[in-house]
């Protein structure tokens, strides 16, 4: 009798386990198409969320597509070619100013400073910003956040970017580093890891950080059309929760550990370079520690755009920023 009872209990527990596993396997994995404006170590928390399985824990499959240029990310979103865009928040302002009927809403912030560095062709001891006067400066594409932050910082140091130096802005983003390597410019504004790679190779020397100089801004955020958020609120919450888990993980772990986790996304970059870049970005608080985009950051963004002459009109914070989702996943 006891033997029969034991067998029955084991059989019952096995059946329950099989049913539970079947139910889990039958849960629909939902796919979200994400268009990222560039593929960069600057977005480390996103790749941590992928590699640590945080999206998978939320029942999400992420289709990540490189979509170079903020205008192209916006086109993908507006044409339903992507569900979520990872791009500079200034792009949502441009779209709103054009009278879009379905606004693009910022719902989660990933980076909170500029991610570029000032690189000198020659080694400079005791760098000061006034040393840029009279030089040839290879800047970023006009109208983008790197260029606007670059000009903002130059003006902050009493340098007129259009009068006190020779400013080059007609080179595509993808070709800026190769242009500098081939001899164009005395100084260049570069993202990582290219800045550190040049320094390691002796092609250039990092002398200043635009992120440290410009303060906190919603430099890169996740955004989606208002209609998509309204129709897929639970999905967007799951996505944001996975990002928040990754943000906390990056904050709590060492640059070496972060580098090891995200290395599969940067197979052509040495691990020590990835670690160096992560350490530099962590050191200047570039990675947002939570997904909430606050109003002070939004206002700083518009001040920078205005200073660069690129702000079409001031857009109210509440019109293009939704913090409800981010705040709910943090509770």
From TrEMBL:
SUPFAM superfamilies: Periplasmic binding protein-like II (SSF53850). Belongs to the bacterial solute-binding protein SsuA/TauA family. Residues 1-22 form the signal peptide. GO terms for cellular component: periplasmic space. Keywords: Signal. It comes from the Bacteria. PANTHER family: ALIPHATIC SULFONATES-BINDING PROTEIN-RELATED, TAURINE-BINDING PERIPLASMIC PROTEIN. Its main location: periplasm. It is found in: Periplasm. This is Binding protein YtlA.
């Amino acid at each position: 009798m006891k033997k029969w009872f034991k067998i029955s209990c084991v059989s019952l527990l096995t059946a329950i386990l099989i049913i539970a596993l079947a139910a889990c396997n039958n849960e629909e994995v939902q796919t979200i198409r994400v268009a990222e404006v560039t593929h960069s170590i600057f977005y480390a928390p996103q790749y941590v969320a992928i590699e640590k399985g945080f999206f998978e824990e939320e029942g999400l499959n992420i289709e990540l597509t490189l979509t170079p240029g903020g205008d192209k990310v916006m086109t993908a979103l507006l044409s339903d070619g992507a569900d979520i865009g990872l791009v500079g928040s200034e792009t949502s302002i441009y779209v709103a100013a054009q009278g879009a009927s379905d606004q693009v809403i910022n719902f989660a912030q990933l980076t909170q400073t500029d991610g570029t560095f000032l690189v000198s062709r020659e080694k400079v001891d005791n760098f000061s910003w006034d040393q840029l006067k009279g030089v040839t400066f290879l800047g970023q594409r006009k109208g983008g956040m790197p260029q606007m932050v670059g000009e903002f910082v130059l003006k902050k140091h009493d340098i007129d970017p259009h009068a006190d130096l020779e400013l080059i802005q007609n080179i595509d983003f993808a070709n800026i580093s190769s242009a500098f390597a081939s001899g164009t410019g005395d100084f260049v504004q570069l993202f990582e890891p290219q800045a550190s790679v040049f320094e390691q190779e002796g092609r250039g020397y990092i002398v200043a950080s635009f992120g440290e100089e410009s303060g906190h801004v919603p430099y890169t955020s996740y955004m989606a059309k208002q209609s998509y958020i309204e129709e897929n609120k639970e999905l967007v919450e799951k996505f944001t929760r996975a990002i928040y888990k990754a943000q906390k993980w990056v904050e709590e772990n060492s640059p070496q550990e972060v580098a090891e986790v995200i290395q599969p996304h940067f197979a052509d970059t040495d691990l020590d370079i990835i670690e160096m870049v992560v350490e530099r970005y962590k050191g200047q608080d570039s990675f947002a520690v939570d997904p909430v985009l606050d109003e002070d950051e939004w206002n700083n963004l518009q001040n920078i755009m205005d200073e660069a002459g690129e702000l079409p009109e001031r857009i109210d914070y509440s019109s293009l920023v939704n913090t409800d989702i981010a705040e709910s996943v943090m509770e």
